[in-house]
Design a protein that fits this description.
This protein is mainly beta and 82 residues long. The protein contains one helix and four strands; from the N terminus they run βββαβ. It is 10% helix and 26% strand. Strands 1-4-2-3 form a four-stranded antiparallel sheet, with no helix packed on it. β2 and β3 form a beta hairpin.
């Protein structure tokens, strides 16, 4: 398994799915239970469009651990590069 070099940056309101580099990973953090989970950026881009702002999907995300819609932080990290 490749080591994941993590640099965390929060997604700004101006960033869209098309602005992400191929090696960047999206994740969401629940404010209630503090669970962080990687989210499939390609599936979300297909569903909501490549040019839609990433932060526009926050109200639509639901935490599977506590069953609440309290996912308020969406960030990105560097994944392994080919």
């Amino acid at each position: 398994m490749a080591k994941l070099r993590v640099y965390i940056a929060f997604v700004t309101n101006l960033e869209a799915f098309i602005d992400l580099a191929s090696y960047e990973i999206l994740f969401a953090v629940c404010t209630e239970c503090s669970r962080a989970k990687q989210i499939d950026r390609y599936e979300l881009a297909k569903k909501y469009g490549l040019y839609s702002p990433i932060n526009a999907i926050r109200p639509k995300l639901k935490c599977n651990a506590c069953d609440r819609k309290t996912v308020s932080v969406v960030g990105k990290a560097n994944g392994p590069r080919d």
